[in-house]
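INFO worker-7 received task bundle
INFO bundle size: 2
INFO processing item 0
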Amino acid sequence: MQSRQKNLTVVLEDIYDPHNAAAIWRTCEAYGVGKVCLIFDKQKPFNPKKIGKSSSATANKWLDFEIYRKTSDCLDTLKKQKFKIIATVLSKQAKNIYEFKWPEKVALLVGNEHSGLSEEAIRLSDYQVYIPMQGMVQSLNVSVATAIFLSEIYRSRLG
């Protein structure tokens, strides 16, 4: 637990599929994420500690969770803790993750599988980032995308 990155938090806004959430938690645990925030604004809440018994789901016992009903409540709390809110989006304002200078305290904001992040979440973010892709498909599964973002944050912190 000493290797936890207290300056790295993942925020999941309205994740629909608990299996995607469990896959994200396994990646978070692998990269030493200190905390996962779940926002259930439009989606039905689920308890992160009660998701299945698969190996992905058991990673939840090593993570701290905070659950919010409103996006603004979660992001305001993180900003008070001096986190920079980094929204994962495809937009003209978004920066390529491989060229982005990651701040010391990162709250990585990931959106719903179908609709992405809410307008409110994007508006409240400090920065926007995207994963550059070469193929015809311009989106990835939310758990795969989160793994790529966390891998790049980890790599950039190695020096």
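INFO item 0 finished
INFO processing item 1
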Amino acid sequence: MAAERFFGQRMRRFEDPRLLTGAGAYLEDLRQPDLLHAAFVRSPYAHATIGAIPKEAARMSGVVGVFTAGDFKLGPIPTAVPHPALRPCGQVPLARDRARFVGEPLAVVVATDRYTAEDGAGAIAAELELEPLPVVAGWEAALAPDAPVLHEGLGDNLAGSWVVRVGEVERAFAEAERVVRGSFAVQRYTGMPIETRGVMATVDPISGRLVVWSSTQWPHTVRRALAEALGMPEHRLRVVAPDLGGGFGVKQDVYPEEVVIPLLAQRLDRPVKWVETRREHFTGTAHSREQVHDLELAVTSDGEVTALRAVVTADLGAYTRGLGLLCPSITAGSLLGPYRIRHYQATVRCALTNKAPAGAYRGAGGPEAVFALERAMDRVAQELGLDPADLRRRNFIRPDEFPWHTGLGTAQLPVVYDSGEYAANLDRALELADRDGWRQRQSAARAEGRYVGIGLACYVLLGGLGPYESAEVRLDPSGEVVVLTGASPHGQGTDTALA
């Protein structure tokens, strides 16, 4: 009997019947005996001094308690992805003296049901004593010499700055026949999964272990950060990621609520649950991608790019949370793309502003690099009068040059391209897209006063950060295979792919 082939075949997804028939278990579906519900009081100002936070709501029927930063001894949320250039500008789960973005948690109300908790939070919000402060609305204002400093201990609004170098950049530019420049900005985004975030926590009555359910894309990282924040060993803490109704990267962070809800479960000795409203999601969940890329390319008259110099400026919002400086780091490590560029320098600047903290969103720094580099390549082609596809062919890493050592690294490991047929892949893509046919249609449309654009982009995907991942495969006596992995599915068909 011939072996069954799976590559190239259409596969039915194994997880779909369970989810489509309502048998999934999302955070909102989870219940515990004697469950309490939490609602957060959030800052309506982008920047304000915090005065009194009234606690009269604690006397409302059904309200169990009102808690502020003064009720807990908490430091900033631990950074899950450290970086040597990161300066101390982390977010304390409940703001103490100053609110630095709209939606920042100031207090939390716990009640016997969600509606009462939200009513209590609303009553407190109406009586908050906040004194508005000057707002830093963008990275240019943040880096100005006279900008209000958001974190007093820093002296300025830089969360971090560093330089990446490969080769002899200054010499390459000094010898360049031509230099092409461009500034390419990517606006602020956020993911909008159907399911918002949520957290539930309880203390196991038998083992005493703290159990936390979170709609997170990376439960292991949340566990590590929680253990550090709560001052407890990881083996005393279990983090469960239930079914996720989408993630898009915004659930790949460590949030204030993931620290506060477990603390409340410990303090009250009862299960506590919080589910984010859509309004909270707009303001409190991570935003992403607000970066400006100033690029200079040293080129020869026939279109060979010999060197690239970049300044990447990222608006990280008010704090660095779980991801820290990860996204602009990935941008700086991805700007060489699939090209044979031997001399490279990137200066990265991460600004602090009065906006929601930045995090990951679909590629986490990679798409920003591709956008900037490919727009710059188009500008080179335009200035030299070359076909954009031909310019890329001239600069691709050639098949006989692999393995190609980029000179860059990730997670203390060198980034090496092991193989590729970039020019052949591009030619096939142009053929399948019928680019020549589209050129004709473009000319015809322009004659009629209509504008049709034809875009082209090439990139190499950095699929993982490293340095390692683990998995376990078990074959039991019945012949059944069990696969254990840290991958957190949220719509990609992970179960089917692993099976």
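INFO item 1 finished
INFO post-check item 1: The chain has a mean pLDDT of 93.
INFO post-check item 1: Residues 469-499 form one domain.
INFO worker-7 idle
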